[in-house]
Each structure stands twice: as C-alpha cells, then as structure tokens.
Write a structure and sequence with these properties.
The chain has 284 residues and is α/β, with parallel strands linked by helices. The longest helix is centred in the last third of the chain and has 26 residues, at 211-236. The two termini are 13 Å apart. β1, α1 (16-27) and β2 (34-38) form a beta-alpha-beta unit. The protein contains twelve helices and eight strands.
Length: 284
C-alpha cells in the first residue's frame, strides 16, 4: 500500500501559503500518512492533523497583529520577538482562545515529525507525535525559535533553535520513514535561491554562546538551495510534487499586511488542487 508524505518547510508568516494548501486538502479529504513540519510548518501540519480547517489562517491573519504575539514589546519583556508561549500556550491550550484539538490528533493515524535543532550541539532533532501532549506544545515552540530573533527554547534541559538550521527541507526524512511519494510545500518561488545575507547578520548575534548554531545558520542558504535542487530531481522521477507560490504577494517572514497575507493564502488554496490531480494520476 502506498505511503504518501507531506513536508512543510515553514517560512514565518509566508507559511500562510502552505496553510491554504492544507486547508484545500482538508476540504477535499486528502489525507497524508506522514506529516513533517519545520518551524511555522510544524503548526500548519499539527492543525491539519487535527482537522481544524481555517485555524492556521486565523493565527497568521488575525492573532499575529497582536503585540502579545510578536513585536518589540515581547523583545523588551522576554528577550524574544515572537512570544511562543502566547502562540502555542495561551492561544492553543484547551482553555485558550483557539485550542488545538489534541484528541483529534491522537485519533489520526498519520505520523508526525517536528524538526528542530539543538542549539549547543547543532544536531538536528526530529520530535515525534509521542512528544506532543495535551496543553504541552513545546516542540512547536522549539522548532519555531528563529536565532537572533528569539532565544533558544528549552525542553527537558536542552535548548533548541529553529528546525531550518538542522534540516530545512526534510524530504529525505520522509523517504527514510517509508514514503513512496512526497508533497513538498515551499513558501517562496521554486526558482528563487535563498541568500545568506540576513542569516550572516543573525549568526553574529549568537556566535559567542552558540557557535555550532551560528555555523549552521551561515550554511542554511546553501543547504536549502541544495535540498531544493534534490527535490527537483525527485520531481522529475515523479517521487516528489513541489507546491510553491509564483510570488509571495509581498509577504515576508515577519510582515503582517493582512491584504497580502490573504492573497497568499488564497494562492495556496488554489495551488492545492495540484495535489489532488497528482495523487489521482499516481493512485489512479
């Protein structure tokens, strides 16, 4: 029996594009057997596994405008620009404003992997569904902690940074888990190379305390670009379907223009039809 995986690479608020793709999947009953999320992509796939259509959209387009979510208010108060405890705690817990349906995740038989990077060692960490618990969504906080923007997030005595430092495009992980085909969700145009400029600046901020993470950050662009090229080779063999926007509608990692975000979401929802067509040809 075929095993189909989906990989969401995240990308800050550009992740609303992949949220649109996954909402299309929910509307059209497209189910994946293995879901892998990096950074914001981890939140996308968790809500998808819970069957909570529109939940991710609300986080990107509504809650992100709040000062409790992200901004210099948080930076001054906590040392982190993005308030992970507010996003994945206050909003997402069972008594929160927009709770994750954790029992639904448990009922879903699909595998879940959330990618993070150990801040001290620089090693990649693949959290699993068993690491997720009711009202304990720290693995998503760890996966989304951007170096130089947020402090590393601690889980059980280990500090973690954004999963993009460890494995920015984890399609190989999906194949290692036995997937026959993989849908890859990118949040920037396929042929736009990632440039290291901002990464080099952020690396300077963390190099003294976390030299291994700084090295990974400096190499992230090159690694991302190489992995996307690998994905293109798999796509030529019909092993990978790459879904990516033709443009980002002006949305950047931390931008909060609602009109732009909405256009990017709608673009993702429309592009989700490619998955339906691809699977029909493959499973036909």
């Amino acid at each position: 029996m075929s095993k189909i995986g989906v990989v969401d690479v995240g990308g800050g608020l550009r992740g609303i594009y992949a949220a649109g793709v996954l909402d299309f999947c929910l509307d059209h009953h497209i189910m994946f057997d293995c879901c892998i999320g990096v950074s914001a992509g981890s939140a996308n796939v968790v809500s998808y596994l819970a069957g909570q259509r529109g939940r991710n959209y609300r986080f990107y387009s509504q809650y992100a405008k709040r000062k409790s979510y992200m901004g210099f208010y948080n930076l001054l108060r906590t040392g982190s620009y993005i308030n992970m405890d507010y996003i994945y705690g206050s909003l997402s817990n069972s008594d929160g404003e927009d709770p994750i349906d954790f029992p639904a995740i448990c009922r879903n038989h699909a595998q879940l992997f959330v990618v993070a990077e150990e801040a001290v060692t620089g090693r990649v960490k693949y959290f699993e569904k068993k690491d997720l618990h009711q009202d304990d969504y720290r693995i998503m906080m760890a996966s989304s902690s951007i170096p130089g923007v947020n402090r590393p997030y601690e889980i059980d005595g280990i500090l973690y940074y954004d999963g993009a430092l460890g494995d920015p495009v984890p399609i190989q992980k999906a194949f290692e888990e036995g997937c026959d085909r993989v849908v890859l969700l990118l949040t920037k145009p396929l042929d736009v190379l990632r440039k290291p400029g901002k990464d080099l600046l952020l690396a300077r901020r963390i190099r003294k305390k976390y030299p291994r993470s700084a090295e990974n950050l400096c190499a992230r662009a090159e690694k991302y670009n190489a992995l996307v090229e690998s994905a293109k080779e798999y796509a030529q063999k019909n092993k990978v379907l790459i879904i990516s926007p033709d443009n980002t509608e002006g949305v950047t990692t931390l931008s909060r223009n609602v009109a732009n975000l909405n256009r990017l979401y709608q673009k993702g929802y429309k592009d989700g039809a490619q998955i339906q067509n691809w699977l029909e040809r493959y499973l036909g």
